[in-house]
Amino acid sequence: MKQLFCIWMVCIGAYATAQPPQGTPPQGGRPPKRPPIEQRIKRLNDTLSKSLPVTAAQKKTIDDAFTTFFTQADKIIGDNPPPRPEAMDEKSQQMREQLKKVQRERDEKIEKVLTVEQFKKYQQIERNLRPKPPGNMQPPPPQKNK
Questions:
Q1: Which of 25, 82, 84, 118 could bridge to 114 as Cys pair (CB 3.0-4.6 Å)?
Q2: What pTM does this model have?
Q3: Over the stretch 61-70, which tens digit does the pLDDT of each residue have?
Q4: Are residues 69 and 106 in contact, defined by beta-carbon separation less than 8 angstroms?
């Protein structure tokens, strides 16, 4: 009986250690698929509605800006995960610059319809909506707008 218990404990221990750590990509090395754009817009609206009261016209502009942004970002990224800073090659750098460009365009559209106070609040909320980097990597510090 004692042997059976020991074998059972070894099997459980082996199974528990064989599981991939949380946050690692599934087999094949690819990260999980991004949610559909509609789902990302809904998450955005849920978050914004709690912290940033906007008019219907402002909401429509924000939705349109983010829909365009998500569509363009998905085309730029494709099925590739965002590169790690230490593994940046020329292609990764170009992809990062393209993403920054569409992000600036999105924020410019949104800034036009929000008040100064609303836009500051939006920027804080938007930073929190960004996907978290994998592992223990820290995101780069926010850049100051000019």
A1: 118
A2: 0.65
A3: 999 999 999 9
A4: yes
